[in-house]
Specification:
Blueprint: H1 3-10, E1 15-20, H2 22-28, H3 32-44, E2 47-56, E3 59-60, H4 63-75, E4 79-84, H5 105-119, E5 124-127, H6 138-144, H7 149-172, E6 177-182, H8 198-202, E7 205-209, H9 227-239, E8 243-248, H10 255-267, E9 272-275, H11 286-307, E10 312-313, E11 315-318, H12 331-335, E12 342-345, E13 356-358, H13 368-378, E14 382-385, H14 386-389, E15 402-405, H15 419-429, E16 435-438, E17 443-448, E18 452-457, E19 463-469, E20 476-481, E21 488-491, E22 495-500, E23 504-509
Parallel strand pairs: 1-2, 1-9, 2-4, 4-5, 5-6, 6-7, 7-8, 8-9, 11-12, 13-14, 14-15
Antiparallel strand pairs: 2-3, 10-17, 16-19, 17-18, 18-23, 19-22, 20-23, 21-22
Helix pairs in contact: 5-7, 9-10, 10-11
């Protein structure tokens, strides 16, 4: 079965999609030949849904070109949606120059016209992750008043979303549904006006940026690969049924990290994987990334089948919405690389948690002290960052069921923890799950319901792991990626000892 036939058969399990930016529409979809080539590429890449963009970077694609491309793709059996990227569309922000000042009324009016134009052609519209502001012009300062910048911007962008995007679009096209795509820089959302609670309420759907890229790439922030999983699960809990899929790109990637973006997105139970974007995937590392992805797509469908709807088990790792990270930005992403199975969540709920990890972010919860004391008294394992401990009063974390994680203001430094340090942490934190896990850092552990577990090694070389616990000795290997990899595995009565290949994902079904 070729990928196109497989994609149509499996689209209820997992959908692959791509985006044609407004410039891609102009450069690739203005001729019949260009459209035919794009359709062929999509079919060979298992893409069954396309987003055709009307506006980006100050450029508006022509209606005739948009409508012809829309109709050609529909006629070829694709789902078709629109997209808008709100860059260079009005008065410039005093911050990032491609971002707008949304306090400015003329900018608001232009934003409205763009969405009215797009809604006249498409029933579903994605908004790329530039719908924010960092402007501090005099007009913004006056409008802000006594509010913090974060509060003003969240209030502003929620109102703009409702009054200048959603209501006008639905007025033009009552069938219009609007998707807000959140970026991957979740620890800074509120400071730039992304309010994931209120905006998720007003939009029809949400999408998630899972573009982590190469972990040592300075330009792209040296992100931990696990971040894609954490943010997809975190926003997935907030969005519930409104959560559509994850979106990643080829920038700053090599084939191994490009595939890891895909695996983490699917592991996090995304229903759709959007490959940004058609034009970028035709150049630089794009073709090589896609070549490797095409080989792995059949197995990503298998992975989606395994995780779909399964509850995740593990250590509750809450990031309250609009919480500040202090000196611990994105600490969850690095903790997830330490062989600790996290359950990303928005709320601190000790009663519903078997084990709890709290960072500086937890200070956002007004009831933190009472919740923490009750958890410590219950005997459940609790891991606290040193940054949080330094802010606590009236709480003694030096008890047998507590671990203090020394982040030292450098979350990335956690990847340097050695075997003995990691063993000491895991022995306490994994106790409620009747598991012991020995592995170096940069190895992630995921628990899905009672039936499955996954281990992903992000290391460049083979690593040895030992997993001990109930029903481990009778486990069965059901999937390993890349599909050419081989893991050396030895099972005993209650344990697994394995040599995992570099940059690999292993999925087991418990006995």
């Amino acid at each position: 079965m070729d990928l196109w036939d497989m994609a149509r058969e499996k689209r209820e399990v997992l959908t692959f999609s791509t985006l044609f930016t407004a410039q891609n529409v102009r450069d690739y979809l203005s001729s019949d030949e260009g459209i035919a080539q794009a359709i062929d590429w999509c079919r060979r890449t298992a893409v069954t849904k396309v987003y055709i963009e009307s506006f980006r970077n100050g450029y508006t694609a022509e209606r005739k070109t948009l409508e012809r491309a829309r109709d050609r793709f529909k006629g070829a059996g694709f789902e078709v949606a629109g997209c808008v990227t709100t860059t260079n569309l009005g008065k410039r922000s005093t911050g990032w120059s491609i971002i707008a000042c949304y306090t400015d009324k003329e900018t608001q009016e232009r934003l409205q016209r763009i969405f009215e134009y797009t809604a006249s052609m498409f029933d579903l519209i994605m908004i790329d992750d530039f719908l924010f502001t960092d402007c501090q012009c005099q007009e913004c300062q006056l409008a802000k008043g006594d509010r913090s910048w974060a509060q003003y911007r969240c209030d502003l962008m929620t109102r703009i979303s409702r009054e200048r995007i959603i209501e006008p679009a639905k007025s033009v096209n009552p069938k219009a549904r609007i998707i807000i795509k959140y970026p991957q820089w979740y620890d800074n959302f509120h400071n730039r006006g992304y309010d994931v609670v209120r905006e998720t309420e007003v939009f029809d759907y949400i999408w998630v940026g899972t573009e982590t890229r190469d972990p040592d790439n300075e330009r792209w922030g040296r992100k931990a690969q696990y971040e894609a999983y954490y943010i997809m699960r975190w926003l997935g809990e907030i969005g519930g049924e409104k959560t559509g899929g994850g979106w990643f790109d080829p920038f700053g990637t090599s084939p191994p990290t490009y595939l890891e973006q895909a695996r983490q997105t699917v592991l996090a139970d995304a229903r759709e994987v959007l490959l940004f974007c058609y034009g970028a995937l035709q150049r630089d590392t794009g073709p090589a990334n896609i070549q490797h992805l095409r080989r792995e797509i059949p197995y990503l469908y298998d992975l989606a089948d395994i995780v779909r709807g399964e509850p995740i088990l593990g250590i509750s790792a809450p990031k309250p919405p609009n919480s500040d990270p202090g000196n611990e930005p994105y600490v969850f992403d690095f903790v997830g690389m330490l062989g600790l199975p996290l359950v990303p969540t928005a709320g601190i709920e000790p009663e519903a948690s078997d084990a709890l990890f709290l960072s500086y972010h937890a200070l956002k919860d007004e009831d933190l002290k009472d919740k923490l004391l009750s958890t410590l008294d219950s005997g459940k394992p609790v891991m606290l960052t040193d940054g949080l401990v330094g802010e606590l009063e009236g709480v003694d974390p030096k008890v047998d069921n507590a671990v203090i994680l020394n982040v030292g203001g450098e979350p990335r430094s956690l990847l340097n923890l050695g075997f003995e340090d990691l063993r000491g942490i895991r022995d306490i934190m994994l106790k409620p799950f009747s598991l012991k896990f020995d592995a170096p850092s940069r190895v992630s552990l995921y628990l899905f319901g009672e039936g499955y577990l996954a281990i992903e090694s992000f290391n460049e070389e083979k690593v040895e792991i030992v997993l001990t616990g109930d029903r481990i000795g009778d486990s069965e290997l059901v999937l390993i990626l890349p599909m050419t990899a081989t893991a050396e595995m030895r099972f005993s009565s209650r344990s697994l000892r394995a040599i995992l290949p570099p940059r690999s994902l292993t999925v087991l079904r418990r006995g």
